[in-house]
Amino acid sequence: MPVSGLPPYDTQNIFARILRGEIPAKKVFENDFAFAFHDINPQAPTHVLVIPKGPYCSFADFSASASEAEIAGFIRAVGTIAKDLGLEAPGYRLLANMGEHSGQEVPHFHVHLFAGRPLGRMIPG
Ligand code: 5GP
Fold first, then answer.
1. 59 partner at 20 to 30 Å CA-CA among 4, 78, 113, 119?
2. Mean pLDDT, to the nearest integer, of 52-65?
3. Which residues have C-beta atoms less than 6 Å from ligand 1?
4. Mean pLDDT for the stretch of residues 67-81
5. Is the pLDDT of residue 80 over 60?
6. What is the mean pLDDT of residues 118-125?
7. Which of 61, 106, 114 to mutate to test the pocket of ligand 1 (most atoms within 8 A of CB)?
C-alpha cells in the first residue's frame, strides 16, 4: 500500500528486478523476509543493501503496511547479516533514505549497511 500522495510501487524498479533474478547482484544473504547484496557503488569498504522481499516503496510504506512477521523478519535479518559479516565489534552504520529530501533513488525500501572504517559524522556539513 503506497503512502498517501506518493506513487504506487513500481514493479520495474531495479531492486524488484534484482529480487526476480532479472539483474545480477552479489548476494550476501537471503531468507523468507530479506535479500542482501553489495551496493554497486560502495561508499565504505563494506556497503551492503538489505531489502524486504515484499513490494514496499519506502520505510514509510514498510512501517505502515508490512505485517509484524515481515517487520520482525526483516529487522532480525539485518542484525544477522551484520553479525555474520563480523561487524559487531568494529561497529557499523545503518541508513534508510525515505523520499525526496533524503535523496532516495530506488523506490523499494532498503537499508544501507556501512562498515569497514570509521564512518565520520552522521550527516555532512
Ligand atoms: P538510495 O539513494 O535509494 O538510498 O540508494 C540506492 C542505492 O542503490 C545506491 O547506493 C546505489 O549505488 C545502489 N544501486 C543502484 N542500482 C544498483 C544496482 O543495479 N545494483 C546494486 N547492487 N546497487 C545499485
1. 119
2. 98
3. 14, 23, 25, 37-41, 49, 97, 103-106
4. 98
5. yes
6. 87
7. 106
pLDDT at 116 over 80: yes
- Judge contact between 98 and 59, C-beta under 8 A: yes
Question: What domains lie within the chain, and their CATH numbers?
Answer: 14-107 (3.30.428.10)
Ligand 1 centre to CA of 68 (Å) is 26
Phi, psi of 2 (to 5 degrees): -70, 155
Residue 53's nearest CA partner among 107, 110, 92 is 110
Which is the closest atom of ligand 1 to the Cα of 47? 10
Residue nearest to atom 24 of ligand 1 (CA): 40
In the reported structure, the alpha carbon of residue 71 is separated from the centroid of ligand 1 by a whole-number distance in angstroms of 22
Is 110 one of the catalytic residues? yes
Q: Is residue 81 within 8 Å of residue 48, measured between CB atoms?
A: yes
